[in-house]
Amino acid sequence: MFAGGRPIDEVLAELGALHAGDEPGRGRPGVANTFDSGLASVEEIAVRAFELYLHVNGLYPTSFPSVATLEHQVVAAVGEMVHAPPGAAGSWTSGGTESCLMAAKAARDARPDVERPQLVFARSAHAAWAKAAAYFGLEPVVVDIDPVTMTADVAAIERAITERTVLVVVSAPSYGHGVVDPIRSIAAMCARVGVRCHVDACIGGWVLPFAEQLGLPVPEWDFRVPGVDSISVDLHKYGYTPKGCSVVLYRTAAMRRGQYFVASDWTGYPVVNSAMQSSKSGGLIAAAWAVLRHIGADGYRELVGRTMDATRELIDGIAGIDGLRVLGRPAASLVAVTTDGVDFFPFLDELERLGWSIQPQLSQPGVPPSIHLTMTATHGPYVTDLLSALRVAVSAARARGPLPTPEQLSFVDELAAMAAADGGVSADGLTELMLKAGLLDNGRMAPVHALLDGLPAGLRESVLLAFFEGLNPPL
To answer: What is the mean pLDDT of residues 139-149?
Structure first.
């Protein structure tokens, strides 16, 4: 790969060919991994700012003092939007997961007196919290959600809190269903017992403030709620900055202190890291700073207004489709749709056949499987076509048999036997079984998701691990 050098045009052409296959549905609702403002100038200023800071390392704010200035100004801008009080403090991170990890670490390290500390969150909380528990030796205490509202169950959270609880997490909104948890009640409960409460607003934190300014009904969620101690907000979602941009904020600087790592007892330079990374791209924070300055509050209000218009149009349209329903009452721009009286996975398969490969969410206790729709400012023109596809797909699914088929169910037995014999599922073994079951014949993923949905959690995760290991095989 690296033998000899190659001309710029040749290298970029090869790179462009590889990139051509990425997200073929980009720009349409249902593509959950792309946030597009629709403004060419936003991408232009991000690229130019990143280029200016291409070789700047955010690890060294004394060598590159402008990075510290940019970080402080971006954190302050986010703090203003979430009504951070005087004395609040925050940090820049590489994304929502790192922001969540830092809030969990800070809460853990603030309670050195607690042995086997616990982290309490609802099943609807982002998987980043399970990751934080796994990385930092916290015991995850997961509670079920209300099956009607899809929000965290206040009474269940209260029962879950013990003397070992160091942090309780609530969502504004939850990724899966776009609903805001009863934050005032849970935060008040946490304050009474002296436990930190974190609001995960990674996906909604740059939508809810502007929605409120537009006069839309927004549940209480930010630092104006007593008992809310920390908040995470991503800018690489509805801030439309490049990927790798998030902020975690704390009500006081003292609460932030535990997220830092400091080391001077070695032969090199003293190390002080505010988050997980040491070396980090100055280009990303420069690009985010530039995009925020370029769009401005008026621009974000307009983008959020268009986003919410498209979301409401979608929700109202689904209400008129027999056999479909929206889960919960979305408060922002995320919508989860399930079937009602129609098998879900044939419906998903029909949607894929119509060219709409929308992210599915597997079932959980008391929660049916659903498709996840992340709406943005550019999605309004597509809503009519999407509603038409949903109507056709649910009608066609009524005439079909369920997924997985009886033939495909034999795959589950063989999979379980492989896992039992080999201590897990291997990438090669998974591919062999999928080929044998015909799961790779038409390129559609609905039958695969139907099978995954019926697997016990441990076996499901073993299969997912094997699949993603297969994407980066041994050398």
So the answer is: 96
